[in-house]
Amino acid sequence: MAETDYCRFGEVPMDNGQSRQRMRPWLEAKVQAGNIPGLSWIDQEKKIFKVPWKHGGKHDWSEGDSTIFKEWALHTGRYREGVDQADWPTWKTRFRCALNKLPDIQEMKEYNQLDGSEPFRAYKFLSKEELNQKKLGNNEYREVCTLTPTSNTQNPALPDIVPVEVKAAPQSQLPNFPSDLEDLELDPIKSDPNLLANTQLNHIITPANDIKEEPGDHGDVEMTELYAELSLTTRGPQQHLSPLQVPRRQEPQDHEMEILLRYCQQQVQIFHVRSPHGCRLFYDPERNDQMLLEPLKQELFGPDQFEQLEFPQCETTNPGQEEHTYKLLTALDRGMLLECHNGNIYATRKSRCVIFISTPAINNGEPFKLERNVKVQVYDSHGYFEPMLQRYLSGASKKPLSHFVIGFGQRIMSNNADHSGLLISAQVNHSRSQHRLNQVSCASPLSSSINISQSDDFDKLLKLVKDESNAQVMEISNGLSA
After folding, report:
1. DSSP string across 179-195
2. How many Å apart are CA 24 and CA 46, to the nearest integer?
3. Do residues 43 and 35 touch, judged by C-beta distance below 8 A?
4. What is the pLDDT of residue 208?
5. Domains assigned to the chain
6. Which residue has the higher pLDDT, 165 or 410?
7. Average pLDDT in the 207-221 region?
8. Are 186 and 327 in contact (CB under 8 A)?
9. What contacts 127, CB < 8 A, 6 or more positions away?
10. What is the three-class DSSP state of 424?
11. Over the stretch 383-409, which tens digit does the pLDDT of each residue have?
12. Is 456 exposed, middle or buried (0-12, 13-18, 19+ CB in 10 A)?
């Protein structure tokens, strides 16, 4: 078995052919024992733990900061005490590779603290139920999504992206499309045979898991010969471009919102809501709401002074996705209302389509269902955002969120899930909170430090080119002033 296979499953064979203990039970025992510096529980009940992650290049790094990586190298047999030479960066890379390959361990990025004196990454041991939900979100939901390979798949200039082969499930194994449509007067949505042809992709792109933190060797380049070929006369006339002038945006009003609407993985619309009354999201191309008179019209569709924001048509090459999305849209004819008062956003569901909300202001982002015709506060800029922002600036808390997520007709799996598997979803930003976050995004002690690689030979070549160009500009300037 190749080394990458060991990394994939978190275990390697012993010299006698027997398998060593898998990474999860091994690591869980280490966390529970608490005898490795920095490896400890964040929330033992939820099985969330932290792994020390200090960079080996920091001036205060010591071997004790990376004990867990050495322990894993010893456990897997990749390092033999007194025989092999210590290789801390490689141990760290292998540990992270093995950890990221395990399906029942999930990184909790919102808890990560990668700067400060004691940086760490946060992970969670998933239960069987959570693992099943994760598989459902990653596989079954994506059966209805239009996945289009990008032109960057074969681009060798993108080292952080690797191609992954995707094999479509046999038609007999395609699951029923998941739905929470108990309020819809529609037949249950079945698996569409047409979806099979649209999921047979050769490649999709996913982020690479093991990215080396230390600078690599780019090889030797004969700089003298290479630079001689790049004389200024062969490079053509120089073009001096003025920097892009971006107007400074004023602080938004406290009632403003921004709505990013998605159909599966595709962002289809951005709405900027500036009305102090709020907005209504709906789908009704024939505008039947205009056929009714007050007060019945207001009872069915909400106040008339709301901004009327209509869902666009679903245009995709995936016929199954288009059909299912259309069924959801037809159940959104009465829509939902969003209004913002004093920095607080309220949602009211009018439609037959079931609507789920995931918001940091309620139950730490755990999704919940909106009941019909009940006005619910779904975002709190003063009670949640501002206090948490102050704690973030002092280094005592993670960064607050300036948005919440809406799932239309399908349950949002969790606040950590990838929502691209939902047929229709929306992210609603409180504009002023987002503006405030942009202003202070780099001001917290928890903000990542700046990292710049050491110059390689090509960087040095570029510096030579710049120096010669500047010398020519100075020579021309002196000649004009003479």
Report:
1. ---TT--SPPPPPPTHH
2. 15
3. no
4. 33
5. 3-126 (1.10.10.10), 132-207 (no CATH), 257-440 (2.60.200.10)
6. 410
7. 38
8. yes
9. 47
10. strand
11. 999 999 999 888 888 889 999 999 999
12. middle
Query: Which residue has tokens 């200039």?
Result: 157
State the burial class of residue 290 (Cβ atoms within 10 Å of its Cβ: 0-12, 13-18, 19+).
exposed
Strands (E), 306-447: 307-310, 336-341, 344-349, 355-358, 368-369, 375-380, 403-408, 424-430
Q: Any idea what the Cα angle at residue 228 is, between residues 226 and 230, rounded to 5°?
A: 80
Render pLDDT for 30-60 as a digit per residue (tens, 0 to 9). 999 999 999 999 999 999 999 999 887 777 8
Share of the chain above pLDDT 90, in %: 33
246 or 210, higher pLDDT:
246
Nearest to 283 by CA among 428, 178, 423, 411: 423
Alpha helices in 166-295 (DSSP H): 194-199, 223-228
Distance (Å, rounded) from C-alpha 415 to C-alpha 352? 24
Instruction: Retrieve residue 457's tokens.
Output: 């030979």
In contact, 406 and 425? CB cutoff 8 Å: yes
Tokens of 236: 């053509």
pLDDT value at position 482?
61
